[in-house]
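This entry is retained here.
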Amino acid sequence: MNEEKIRDLLERLQAGEVDINDTVDQLKNLPYEDLGFAMIDHHRSLRKGHPETIFAAGKTPDQVAAIAEKMLKQSSNVLITRADRETYLAVQTLNKEAEYHELAKLITINQNPLNTTRSRILVMSAGTSDLPVCEEAAITAEMMGNSVERLYDVGVAGIHRLLNNRHRIDEASVLVVVAGMDGALPSVTAGLTDKPVIAVPTSVGYGASFGGLAALLTMLNSCACGVTVVNIDNGYGAVTQQLLSIRLPKKRNPYKRHRREEIGRASCRERV
């Protein structure tokens, strides 16, 4: 339940459209609900702007479905990551609108319309093999109300492909750059733009890539400024990081404030 839903409930209570018992029933599971095997954080959307995400890996399909059912009763949109088709079938019995994104291994249920931001996220991949992680990032971003563009297979092995899309890099507010192998694409991209770059190493590569460790170390040692690095194959984590980049409050420019004060004083002198 987000802030808007709570306000609506309290306004209906004030108007006499719902009684106090119904209101208590809807609010009593805030801030969390204990299922024995999981404690669902219903306050997450109040603190973070979006509901808790269900990480399906390591959970049984029945456990995931039980958590999703409680979240749906709170009128939450539901995002489930690292899900297989068996888990999807269990969730689909709760809501026929559930959608399975096989490449990204995500399940999404949209109960509420999304207010899309004007800020644009560009999700980039070095190669086609990185697309599962890219799609996890892109769909997660869309579920959180972001405008998303995709720019795939523009790795440094053919740098002209990246340079030919320079305008798309310039138009983005934040860039999520996904790469395996040598992991060089985020550094190159960050050198072309003043926008924040969220770098995601993937486990794509041959033996000496060490399951993505080589790409991770390359990104952590980037000499280009403005690069933030998340964990290997963590497209979801890249998006939650970029939300902070977009939503940070803008600091006031002290020079502009000083100039306004000077102009104001000058106007007063002229009037005197």
Residues 3-109 form one domain. Residues 248-256, 265-272 have pLDDT under 50 and may be disordered. The chain is about 40% helix and 15% strand. The two ends are 57 Å apart (CA to CA).
